[in-house]
Specification:
about 850 residues, alpha/beta, 5-stranded mixed beta sheet, 5-stranded parallel beta sheet, 37 strands, about 25% helix, globular, binds iron/sulfur cluster, binds FE2/S2 (inorganic) cluster
Length: about 850
C-alpha cells in the first residue's frame, strides 16, 4: 500500500492508502469517538458516533478510507449535535445501576455520556421486558446492552465461532415524530437499536462455543460479563500486572488484575485477566485459566538440601517447555558445568525440525508470524489441530477469511466443525495419518514455481499427473426453425387471412463431448473432495498473499526430516510466508537455548515432569517451584518475540536460581540471566527491566524484542525423499490432542476451566458405535493401555478420537511412539 498524507483538524499525518480514517487518527493520537468499531474487524456502522467531515462530506471514520490529500474535520456543530443525540439515545431506559455494575469505572457509556455533555434526556420509548440470561461462563443482561454488536463482531471476525447474533427485541416502534425532529444519524441508529438485542445463533438459550470470553472483554458496558468475575470487584480497585500468558506458544499479552484476597487476607489474588482486545484476542485458557499458582509455599530447607544432593547425584535433567528462557539458560549453564543430559522430547523434535528446515532455508527460524498470516488472503494449514494447538493461529486464519475475504485449505485427519464453519471459503481435506508428506508435495505441485524448483522434484511431481479423456455432458443452445401459422391483414382489402412463416428460436440441448483432463493422483491419495480443483480455482481468484501454517504433527513424524525440507522448499519456491507452531509455551525458546539429548541417563531431576527427584510448580514434587504467574522472566512466542512476563502473585519458596547458586553459579535474581540469553541464537543482550510490554495506538507490538533470524550456511543439496505410499496406520485412529482451552497440568489446575479428562470422541463416532459418553473404557495398543472415561465432544467430528495430555496422570503419551497418531482399541471396562 502507498504512503499518503492526510490532514486531520489541521494536523498533517502520514498513513497508508486504504486505511480507515479512524485507524489513521488513532495511530496519530487524534481522538475520534467510536463505539462499535473493533480494530482488525469489519466495520458494522452500528453506533454512528464516529461521524467526521472528510472533504466537506459527512462520513463514518471507521468505514471511510483515507485518500491522499484528504482534509478531515473531527468536530462540527452538526456532528456534535448528532453525537450528543446518539448518547442520549443510548441512555434511554438504561438502568441506573452503575453502583453495582461490573463495568462501572471502565464503562464507555459512562465515559461518552460525560464526554458529550449529556445532562438531559430528549427521547423516550416504552421499555420492554429484557430479562437476563445465564450463558454458562457468561452472563448477558439485555437491559444494559447498547446493541453496539461488538460481541457479535469479535466472535465472528476474530474468534470464528459465530455464536452470537442480533435477535428481535419485541419493542414498540419509535414515535414517527422522531424521524422528523431528531438528528438523522441518531434516529437511524436508534431505530435499529430499538429492534434488537443479542441472542445465540444456535437458536437456543444454551451457549455452546469455544468459551474464550472475548465477547465479554470487548463489551463496552456491563451487559456481557464473565460469570465468575461478576460482583467481585470494582475496576478501580484492581492493580494491572502486565504479563505474557504462559499456556501456549502464542504468548499473548495479558494483564493480571489483582487485589487483596479478602478483608482478612491481604495476599494478592488474581480476579481476572484482561487483554488489549483491539490487538490481541485471548482463548479461554488465557482468560480463565489464571489461578494455577503454587500457593502457600515457604522455604523448605530440608527439601532444598535434598534437591542439592539430588543434583549432585543426577546425570539427567528432564523438563517441559513451560519454563522461562531464563530458567532454560540456568539449566543449560548447569549442563555445561556438570555435563547433565538435558531431556525434553517435544522441544528436541522441534529443534531437529527447525535444524532440518534450515539446511535448505538458510535461516534458523521460519520467516513469518501470525500477524502476516492474518494479513494474507490465502492460507494453507498442515499438521496441526489448529484450534487447540495454538488458538491465535486459528484466530489469524479466521481473521484472514472474514476480514480479507480470504480462502484456505485445511489439511488434517481430524474433522473439525469449528474450522469448517469459519467460512464457505475454507476447504478441509481430512487425509489419513502419515500422509503429511503427500500434502506438502501437493502444495509444491500446485503452487511452486516449476522453473525454479529442482528438476528431480518437478519430474517426480509429473509422475502423479495423467491426461485422461472423459465424456462430459453439456447443455448448449441450439437454433431451431419453426413453421408457425400467423393471421395477417391484407393492406388493400383489410381482410384477415392465415399464412405460414418461419421463426427461429434458441432451445437448450444436452450433448456429450469428450474432453482431456489432467488427473492428479496426489489428490486421489489424499481423498480430496471431488470438487477440490474447481473450488481451488474459485478460492484463488484475486489472491496475492499466501501463508503456510505447519504444526506439531510434523515434528514427530517418522519422516520429519523430509517434511522439514519440503516445508523449506515451499517457502522458497512457492512464495508462501511460513509459520511453525511451537508445540508448547516456550518450545521455541528452549529449542534455541538448550542443547538437548535424546535419552536419559541413570538418575534424573524432573522439572514439572516426574524424575527421580522432582521440582514442581504444580506443588506435587519433592521441592516446590514457582508457576509462570509467580515469576519474572521471558517467554519466546510463535511470533519469534521474546516477551517479558511479571509475577502477579508472590512466591515464598526456593527457585531454580537458588539451586544453581548452591551449585556454583551466581545470580541475585533469575532475571539477571535475561541479558545473557544467547545472542548467537538471535537473542539480544538486554536487561529484563528494559523490556517493554504494550501495544501502541497504531497496534504496533512493543513487547520485548524480536529474535534475530540468524543465517546458516546452506548446502546446495535440495534433494527430498519420495512419498512412501505403503506407510499407514490401520485400525482405530487415536490422536494426541487436547480439547480447546486445555494445554497442560497448569490449565488443568485452574478452577474456572472445567474440561473433563478422558478420551474425546465425536458424537458421530458414538452414534455409530456401542459406546456411550461417561462410560469407562480401556484404550489399548501394543505400546500400553490406559483406562479412562468417554467424553462426548461436539467440537470434533468423524472417526478419529483424541487423547489429551492436559492431565499427565492419564499418561496418554504411553500409547504413542513419537508421532501424534496411533491406532488403539477402545473397549468398555
Ligand atoms: S452485549 Fe455488549 S458488546 Fe454486545 S451488543 Fe450489547 S453492549 Fe455491545
Ligand atoms: S465466549 Fe468466545 S466463542 Fe463464545 S460467544 Fe463469546 S466470543 Fe464467541
Ligand atoms: S465506530 Fe464507526 S459507526 Fe460505530
Amino acid at each position: 500500500m502507498d504512503n499518503i498524507t492526510i490532514n486531520i483538524d489541521g494536523k498533517e499525518i502520514q498513513t497508508q492508502e486504504g486505511e480507515y480514517i479512524l485507524n489513521a487518527a488513532r495511530a496519530n493520537d487524534i481522538f475520534i469517538p467510536a463505539i462499535c468499531y473493533l480494530t482488525r474487524c469489519s466495520p458494522t456502522l452500528a453506533c454512528r458516533i464516529c461521524l467526521v467531515e472528510a472533504d466537506g462530506k459527512q462520513v463514518y471514520a471507521c468505514n471511510a478510507k483515507a485518500k491522499d490529500g484528504m482534509n478531515i474535520t473531527t468536530s462540527t456543530e452538526t456532528i456534535e449535535t448528532e453525537r450528543r443525540a446518539i448518547m442520549e439515545v443510548y441512555d434511554v431506559n438504561h438502568p441506573l445501576q452503575c453502583g453495582v455494575c461490573d463495568q462501572s469505572g471502565e464503562c464507555e457509556l459512562q465515559n461518552y455520556t460525560l464526554e458529550m455533555g449529556v445532562d438531559s434526556q430528549s427521547y423516550a420509548v416504552k421499555d420492554v421486558d429484557r430479562s437476563s440470561h445465564d450463558w454458562g461462563h457468561l452472563h448477558y443482561d439485555p437491559g444494559l446492552c447498547i446493541v453496539c454488536e461488538r460481541c457479535v463482531t469479535a466472535c465472528k471476525d476474530m474468534i470464528g465461532d459465530n455464536s452470537l447474533k442480533t435477535i428481535p427485541r419485541g419493542a414498540d416502534a419509535l414515535d414517527t415524530e422522531y424521524k422528523e425532529s431528531m438528528p438523522k444519524d441518531a434516529y437511524a441508529m436508534w431505530n435499529k437499536l430499538n429492534k434488537s438485542v443479542i441472542g445465540l445463533t444456535n437458536g437456543t438459550d444454551v451457549l455452546d462455543c469455544t468459551s474464550c470470553g472475548e465477547c465479554a472483554a470487548v463489551c463496552p458496558v456491563g451487559a456481557l460479563v464473565d460469570t465468575e468475575f461478576m460482583y467481585k470487584s470494582n475496576a478501580w480497585e484492581l492493580k494491572q500486572i502486565p504479563a505474557t500468558c504462559g499456556h501456549c506458544s502464542a504468548g499473548c499479552q495479558i494483564y493480571y488484575d489483582v487485589k487483596h484476597t479478602s478483608i482478612d487476607n491481604p495476599e494478592d489474588k488474581i480476579y481476572r485477566v484482561m487483554n488489549e482486545w483491539n490487538y490481541v484476542s485471548l482463548c479461554g485458557a488465557g482468560r480463565y485459566g489464571f489461578d494455577y499458582q503454587n500457593a502457600d509455599v515457604t522455604k523448605d530447607d530440608t527439601a532444598f538440601a535434598k534437591a542439592i544432593e539430588a543434583f549432585k547425584k543426577a546425570d539427567t535433567i528432564k523438563f517441559t517447555s513451560t519454563i522461562t528462557n531464563e530458567e532454560a539458560l540456568i539449566l543449560e549453564n548447569l549442563k555445561e558445568k556438570y555435563g547433565y543430559k538435558l531431556v525434553n522430547k517435544e522441544a528436541h523434535s522441534f529443534q531437529k525440525f527447525l535444524h532440518d528446515y534450515s539446511d535448505i532455508s538458510g535461516t534458523r527460524l521460519y520467516g513469518s508470524d501470525l500477524k502476516e498470516v492474518a494479513a494474507s488472503n490465502f492460507i494453507v494449514s498442515v499438521g496441526t489441530a489448529i484450534k487447540s494447538d495454538n488458538p491465535n493461529a486459528r484466530y489469524a486464519l479466521n481473521n484472514s477469511l472474514t476480514v480479507n475475504k480470504g480462502a484456505a485449505l485445511y489439511f488434517h485427519p481430524l474433522k473439525d466443525p469449528i474450522v469448517d464453519e469459519m467460512s464457505k471459503n475454507i476447504m478441509s481435506i481430512n487425509h489419513k495419518p502419515l500422509q503429511e508428506e503427500t500434502v506438502l508435495y501437493l502444495i509444491l505441485d500446485l503452487f511452486a514455481d516449476k522453473e525454479k524448483l529442482p528438476k528431480e522434484i518437478v519430474d517426480y511431481l509429473a509422475t502423479f499427473h495423467t491426461m485422461k479423456t472423459i465424456t462430459v455432458e453439456e447443455t448448449i443452445k441450439e437454433k431451431v426453425i419453426e413453421i408457425v401459422t400467423e393471421t395477417q391483414m391484407d393492406a388493400d382489402t383489410g381482410e384477415e387471412h392465415e399464412v405460414e412463416v418461419e421463426k427461429s428460436k434458441m432451445v437448450p440441448k444436452k450433448i456429450s463431448k469428450e474432453v482431456e483432463v489432467d488427473e492428479n493422483r496426489l489428490l486421489e491419495l489424499l481423498s480430496a473432495p471431488a470438487n477440490f480443483s474447481e473450488n481451488l480455482e474459485k478460492f484463488l481468484k484475486k489472491k496475492d498473499s499466501f501463508s503456510l501454517i505447519v504444526g506439531p504433527d510434523l515434528y514427530n513424524h517418522p519422516n520429519s526430516k523430509n517434511l522439514a525440507r519440503l516445508v523449506a522448499l515451499i517457502e522458497k519456491y512457492a512464495n508462501f510466508k511460513l509459520v511453525m507452531i511451537p508445540t508448547l509455551t516456550n518450545t521455541l525458546g528452549v529449542s534455541l537455548i538448550n542443547e538437548l539429548s535424546e535419552d536419559e541417563g541413570q538418575y534424573s531431576i524432573g522439572y514439572n515432569t516426574q524424575g527421580d527427584f522432582t521440582l514442581s510448580a504444580l506443588g506435587d514434587g519433592d521441592l516446590d517451584m514457582p508457576a509462570i504467574n509467580q515469576q519474572e522472566g521471558t517467554l519466546t512466542s510463535i511470533n519469534k518475540r521474546v516477551n517479558p512476563t511479571n509475577a502477579a502473585l508472590s512466591y515464598g519458596g526456593y527457585v531454580l536460581k537458588d539451586i544453581a547458586n548452591a551449585l556454583g553459579l551466581n545470580a541475585e535474581y533469575t532475571i539477571d540471566y535475561t541479558k545473557d540469553l544467547p545472542v548467537t541464537k538471535g537473542f539480544k543482550a538486554e536487561n529484563f527491566d528494559s523490556l517493554p510490554n504494550y501495544y501502541t495506538n497504531a497496534g504496533e507490538e512493543i513487547r520485548g524484542y524480536e529474535l534475530k533470524n540468524m543465517g546458516r550456511r546452506i548446502s546446495s543439496d535440495e534433494s527430498v525423499e519420495q512419498i512412501d505410499e505403503a506407510m499407514k496406520i490401520d485400525g482405530n485412529i487415536v490422536y494426541l490432542a487436547n480439547p480447546v482451552r486445555q494445554f497442560s497440568d497448569f490449565t488443568n489446575k485452574a478452577t474456572n476451566l472445567d474440561e473433563e479428562i478422558g478420551v474425546y470422541i465425536s458424537e458421530e463416532f458414538l452414534n455409530n458405535s456401542e459406546l456411550n459418553a461417561g462410560e469407562r473404557v480401556k484404550v489399548k495398543n501394543e505400546n500400553g493401555e490406559i483406562t479412562t472415561t468417554i467424553v462426548s465432544d461436539n467440537k470434533i467430528a468423524g472417526d478419529v478420537v483424541c487423547l489429551p495430555t492436559f492431565d499427565s496422570k492419564l499418561n496418554s503419551e504411553a500409547l504413542f511412539s513419537g508421532y501424534r497418531f496411533t491406532s488403539a482399541s477402545i473397549e468398555r471396562v
